[in-house]
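User: Can you write out an input/output pair for a complex, sequences first and structure second?

Assistant: Here is one pair. Inputs:
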Amino acid sequence: MRVLIVGGSDAGVSAALRVREVAPDTEVTMLVADVYPNFSICGIPYHLSGEVPAWQDLAHRTIAEIEATGIALRTNHLATAIDTDAKVVTATTDGGQVELGYDRLVIGTGAEPLRPPIAGLDTLGPDDGVHLLHTIDDARRLDSGLVRRGARQVIIIGAGYIGIEMAEALTNRGLEVTVLERLETVLPRTLDRELAEDISAELVKHGVEVSCGTTVAEIHRDGDQLVVTADDGTRRGDAVLVVSGVTPDSELAASAGVKVDRRGTIIVDRRMRTNVPDLWAAGDCVHTHHVLLSEPSYVPLGTTAHKQGRVAGENAAGGDREFAGIVGTQVVRVFDRVVAATGLRDAEASAAGYEPRTVQTTVDDHKRYYPGATPIDIRITGDRSTGRLLGAQLVGTHGAEIAKRVDTYAVALHKGLTVDQLLDLDLSYTPPLGSPWDAVQLAAQAWLAAH
Amino acid sequence: MRVLIVGGSDAGVSAALRVREVAPDTEVTMLVADVYPNFSICGIPYHLSGEVPAWQDLAHRTIAEIEATGIALRTNHLATAIDTDAKVVTATTDGGQVELGYDRLVIGTGAEPLRPPIAGLDTLGPDDGVHLLHTIDDARRLDSGLVRRGARQVIIIGAGYIGIEMAEALTNRGLEVTVLERLETVLPRTLDRELAEDISAELVKHGVEVSCGTTVAEIHRDGDQLVVTADDGTRRGDAVLVVSGVTPDSELAASAGVKVDRRGTIIVDRRMRTNVPDLWAAGDCVHTHHVLLSEPSYVPLGTTAHKQGRVAGENAAGGDREFAGIVGTQVVRVFDRVVAATGLRDAEASAAGYEPRTVQTTVDDHKRYYPGATPIDIRITGDRSTGRLLGAQLVGTHGAEIAKRVDTYAVALHKGLTVDQLLDLDLSYTPPLGSPWDAVQLAAQAWLAAH
């Protein structure tokens, strides 16, 4: 059997590896549009900060390691058409075009950066100092562009987690950074305002200028500089980074008759099957089953792409596995702070028909008598009528095990626990690292007390 | 209604607080044998190390804070008899005896340290430099004894978690420490040999002499020194610390007709009720429902005492709550290492009728390309026939979120997940703090691959 994979990032590679694991006799070919298969896109900010000096180190696996698993890798192969009747994919490569037949096909074409409606943006590019940031090539262009232009001031448009990570990265690189966010707070899709302000303050403390509720209208060049005009005034910078989210890259699939939804995300079932026979899709190009929602959502993250890719690969190899769904778990480190969230926030929960109540409390990461205890701000969202846990947001100090504390809530959400049932959990405790009731349980007690 | 609580440690205080929460009109009286209600016994090593200079800081709550909740606190009241028909508890106090009537009674008398069969141990005490360690008084006596004797060398008998924590504490205090353990490894009730050796090495690296498989036969005084004779030879020290586990303190309850098992633990149902009407018990004096075992077990820990006490208090106040049970979660920091475990190990699982297989793997705490990644050794125990997760042991570097990573396994055990279902969990990821498949999932993949 021949399985063809279109896309060499998290979803594609996970699918390809899984096919080889469960059906070692299968011929697996992977088409990669560029020459960077299996790179950790999430690591780009840490390369640009200088913490990971060689971009090559961002590879989850080297080409040799991928090929050693028996996957036939075709880099520089951009898939341009799928004939789902003849089961042939057409790809362009250096100066030519190839056709590859398949028995089963997995699409993992990912996403592409959104271009917000800013006048001038369409005509400006990396040569002008205006960058999008999604691929390793984008990262390399930004890196060399900053060096070549001797950049000192950078304006970042968008304060989602990539914008924030880049603000930290470029600050650590010695640049002056301004972040402009159209919505009212930083990390607007992750945190409620009460906690987002902590992160704004952390950015400001490290010299970042943060301006929220600020809509950028226009960008233009003025000599070597860029002029960014927003509703609160005009700023000048040596480079502009536009990181305003992503949109699914589903054109190839759609043009082959694969159904997409109104957002352009490929429609798949829980087995990652599309409407076209023998055609699966996974990762940032598909919509996602969310454990707490009846409607699919779009939360493009590497963790999800890995899991979906693995399911798609297993099923393409003849298996029958369902994707269990996400609960929306995220974590981001911002200088010395860590932000983590999972589940739904109040407005999302209300929209989905829940009756949410959110209660915020501040608890110590470990027993206060032991040196080094730090406060964690935790917001718990639960359903007022059923008591079901709906979500949690945590902000605390780097080193306070925030990232893995959110995982306790994530597992609880997966299994449909009530806030009250969090108190039943046998969580670890030693005075330097916790409390007899862990911080995650103390926050649950605060929710219950306010209920 | 009058609720009487015997015992002022974790279980007793949790019960008393819960009664006041759910039934604020209830008269709650708490008898405390000493003058240290609601102290963090788990914090004693960190006081003796010097990290928490004032022992008073080990109080979870001050006496004023407890009394502010409306609990009538009677310190220095040692309960000596219960008349379950007349519903009266007799207690001795300074030079006298008092009788206290109750409608409902909660017993939280805790545990007392085991005295291993060592010749001479019965005749030696703190004045000789031989110490047990269970109460705040014990801690103060050890502290002052070490100072008074100008101790330089201390021999610790027992390498359970308290023995190990004290080895670190006394080393940090500048003493030379030897640890003798009768069983074959350190932390023998927590870790398999493969991981325990890492912790022995960590102790040795910090100057602790560790001798396992060593049975102590005799202790005697020689002038100001103590001579400890074991099967591998004789050692001299200025003080000896015997920390060989605990046994339930159930004499008061048993003499009042409360049923205890062959180990002396008070028998309770899932509502923490004893066989005697209107009499509940909780904490280190009772046996414990274990989610993975059909027979009750005895795992005296503060986390469990808090949860059981809360259930007992809620039910004594007229509620109807079940204790959900433990899964045996523990964590201990040993110098720069952290050990965490939950669930069953191979032998325990076999004895309980499971078909366990344990697979060990080494995974990074976060993406290796980001500076500071450290390896975590994880052993996963799962059932070969059902695939059910049975337990996990982790050893890694302090700072690698080991304590809260074990909690993911703990929640999974609570909910009966298979090892395979760990891969479905939506756990948090950012390169400085994790991987797209978290370390806990990579270990599950290793178990599945070996299966």
